Amino acid sequence: MRLIVSVALSSLLLAGCASTQPDREPDEHRPDPLLADSAVAHAVVREVFVTARTPDDNIDSPAVWAAPDGKLWLFATSKANGRVMMYDGETGTELGRIGTAGEGPGQFLRPNGISVFKDLLFVVERDNHRVQLLSLPALGPLGSFGQDELLQPYGLWVYEPAPGQIEVLVSDAYMAGEYPNGDDIAPPLAELGNRFKRYSVAIQDGKLSAALLGTFGDTSPAGAIRIPESLWGDPAHDRLLISEEDTRSGTAVREYDLAGKFRGRTIGSDRFKAQAEGISLWACPDGSGYWITTDQFKDRSLFHVFDRQSLEHLAAFSGEVVGNTDGVWLHATPSARFSNGAFYAVHDDMAVAAFDWNDIARATSLRASCTQ
Question: DSSP state, 131?
């Protein structure tokens, strides 16, 4: 058994060649607004590290796993090269490159969204139209799902609605052609009812089983998600926040419930000046905490903080370096380097940066821990 795992792992860690699939996304022809020109008040927080730049990878989204020895494994998807980058989550040192470009187990085509749930690594593949699972820490492929329903998947959120149950919500950014400038055209409102797919997932004896539970998406002008990607949920408040990336209709974050119904509220429509992107949640056991959402300015990304319960805007911060951020990840569990956790953000399609939560809290007058 040890030999089989070793061979599988060594093959997965081979560097992949670039995918031949188209790698443009629905928002990539838009102008690049700058935070320097926005006049938005915000705090500036210094990054603890920025990983080595690998511009050929087109890095999109990060996720973190805490190993049994206390080390943090930081993963990030490489859209261009069909692989997952792996770093030390406390230093930013590169640890390996997982997978190769292709359609088989342990291979990826245009990997985009990524998530860690317990000892499972979920990777969304736009051009394989699926979500693939890897085991942790072995990094062996367990299988995939969604191939029969997903058209152009991008983001995901994984949660446990009841003990022993896993559900995965996947955003599906199917489009209806292009404008003359190359921007993708969102489908008519009536065709947006399948923007998100819901799956049940189970692992038994090392084998994956999954089933489509249903689809959802609002079709009203106020509640529709025209260009979807990032989403994150909060079971304690029956809340699902979804980024609307469409700058033509107004980029912001919409509030749904976990059943997929639009609650009638759009957050930040007067605050997002570039494009709403990654979402994360800092959650305390008593139901308090913070939502952190991304405004994707080209020069330096802006991160808006909203109250977990009321969704009131509380603060905004940027890094000194990080810009053009797609995905983010909040790891709230203490580690040797980060006593109250860390916030990770992709930098300009080529690296991942880490912020100490203590530094963010100090700069924005937020709580550093749930006990404060």
Answer: E
Residue with tokens 């990060």: 62
One DSSP character per residue, 79-100 reads TTTTEEEEEETTT--EEEEE-E
pLDDT at position 317? 98
Burial of residue 162, with CB atoms counted within 10 A of its CB: 0-12 exposed, 13-18 middle, 19 or more buried: exposed
End-to-end CA distance of the chain: 47
pLDDT tens for each residue of 103-118: 999 999 999 999 999 9
Q: Does the pLDDT at position 67 exceed 50?
A: yes
List C-alpha distances in Å: 343 to 2, 46, 326. 35, 12, 14
**DSSP secondary structure code for residue 55 in this structure:** G
pTM for the full predicted model = 0.92
Checking if the pLDDT of 139 tops 60, the result is: yes
CA separation for the pair 347, 225 (Å, rounded): 25
Report the CATH fold assignment for 2-14+42-157+223-364: Neuraminidase (2.120.10)
- Residue 370, sorted as left (phi over 0), alpha (psi -120 to 50) or beta, turns out to be alpha
What's the pLDDT at 181? 82
